[in-house]
Design goal:
Elements: E1 2-6, E2 10-16, E3 31-37, H1 39-49, E4 53-60, H2 65-73, E5 77-83, E6 89-95, E7 101-106, H3 115-122, E8 130-133, H4 140-150, E9 153-157, H5 163-169, E10 175-179, H6 180-190, E11 201-205, E12 211-215, E13 218-222, H7 235-248, H8 253-267, H9 280-285
Helix pairs in contact: 1-7, 3-4, 5-6, 7-8
Length: about 290
Amino acid sequence: MTIWNLGSINADMIYDVPHLPGAGETLSANRLDRFLGGKGANMSVAGARAGARVAHIGAIGPDGRWARDRLTEYGVDTRWIAEVSDPTGHAIIAVDAEGENNIILFQGANHAITSDQLGQALSSADQGDLIVTQNETNLQVEAAKLGREMGLTVCYAAAPFQADAVRAVLPYLDFLILNEVEAEQLRQATGQGLSELGIEHVIVTLGSKGARYHHKGTTSDFLAYKVQAVDTTGAGDTFTGYVLAGMDRGMPMEQAILQANRAAALMVTRHGTADVIPDLKEVREARFD
């Protein structure tokens, strides 16, 4: 089986700062690192490192060939990543001493994906494959609708949260993942609770508290592993990629979530994004107090 990811590809410029800057504040950074990132790229790398076959549908600019090469190096099928005239997307990320962050995104080439490109990629998909989208590219609704028509399992990470974008894809979803804040934003936008949306699988990530799984009227909580976090950037994407890989491999959802929790716990102990996502061997061998 294959996970088809209509996803963003960014250069993540990560600044280590003593605290998150306030409005009007000029702040000196202690360090700067550049990593492969974007919610889409992070999820593709996580899925591949969790043992799934992942095909990424996206776009880069002429300045982003290194990002495509790195995705290939990490085991992602990059045949459907187009090179366009727009600059590659990027993110400016500030990370404080407690591992909390704030992020500024520039969409760039991530919004230059064409319908023809999407259709050509999914023409190679098989019934039962997964397709996942986020809110950092264009064509989410088209991808979700096409995925439903083709018999794919349609998955969606509702971030960054945009009420209109989320409402538009809801009718086509089999799987929805979002964080606590986004879940409340969705309730306000739709007037419905998660159990009323008619989506079979819904996961709410709760940060250091773990995750909550909603399935056919039942709710299950999964506690996070206690670790010393140094950088929370990409932890949610790592969790999502591992859950999707578990689904693709036929794991029970509870088992997929437990494994994803382990991956996310390892991820927050590392500085960086896609380049430092743990592989399956590391996740299985990790020991937590």
